Amino acid sequence: MINKMEREKELEEGLANALARIEDLEKIESTHRKMNGELRQEVWDWKQKANQNTILQNKIDVQKQIIEELSRDNQRLAKEVGDQVDKLRKSGVL
For residue 17, how many other CB atoms are within 10 A of its CB? Predict the structure, then answer.
């Protein structure tokens, strides 16, 4: 009889310990789920920023190309004006 009572007490203690452990693990799981959600949001935010950065970099590249084209055009026009001025000087107009 004592063995049976001791065994029941041990089982009850084991069950109580198991239930307490389950409760602890459920709290841990809840915390992990929350953290995972926060991390997913952070990853999404960084992807958005990276996308915006790519868009801005593309705009910068286009603007650089425009500047290079305008610089070449400006040099060409300056040469044309210089040539015209030289012609006018040689012809005595200036």
Answer: 10
Q: What tokens appear for 89 in the block?
A: 């000087």
Going by C-beta distance under 8 Å and a sequence separation of 6 or more, which residues neighbour residue 94? 85, 88
Residues in Cβ contact with 85 at an 8 Å cutoff, skipping those fewer than 6 apart: 94
Q: 92 falls in which pLDDT band (50, 70, 90)?
A: confident
**pLDDT above 80 (res 16):** yes
**C-beta pairs of 86-93 under 8 Å, 24+ apart in sequence:** none
What is the pTM (predicted TM-score) of this model? Answer: 0.61
Radius of gyration of the chain (CA): 40
The Cα–Cα gap between 9 and 49 comes to: 60
Taking the C-alpha atoms of residue 94 and residue 85, their distance in angstroms, rounded to an integer, is: 8
Torsion of CA 11, 13, 19, 21, to 10 degrees: -120
Residue 86 identity (one-letter amino acid): D
